Amino acid sequence: MTLQRKLKVVCDESADGDRALAVRVAFASADRRHVDQHFGAAAGFVIYRVEAGRYELLEAAQFGRLDMDGNEDKLGVKIEALDGCVAVYCQAIGASAIGQLKTRGIQPIKVAPETLISGLLRDLQQDLRDGPSPWLAQAIEARQPKSASRFDAMEAEGWEE
Q1: Residue 160 region, left (φ>0) first, then alpha (ψ -120 to 50), else beta?
Q2: How far apart are CA 40 and CA 125, in angstroms?
């Protein structure tokens, strides 16, 4: 299976200032308005950047029609399409896909059928404003570049034997 179409919105990320609390999230969706797909058989994903004050569409990926047949070969292309995302929202997902996503630092999140993507985006914004939930805080931390200055902070604390 291959990716059939991909729309990528090109923008200058540095122009908007600090993006420390910006996250990328994906939604398994055929109509690009609702979460209406099983992860493994998803016809497409829409990917957004979400910040406390705004969100924007980054990408829309479209795949060929797939059945939920247990064939895991189709998962690789889908997981690759989610590169950089901290979460993917879907109606359902198999155990193998969950394991592969978690290995890449992507949190799978199951939601009720026909859940509006716009509502989930607003919920994520509220979560970022109020202080992220544990899974989101962990995802943000994992995406932060590691700095050598962290060792300076540890040294300043002092060492005792």
Answers
A1: beta
A2: 27
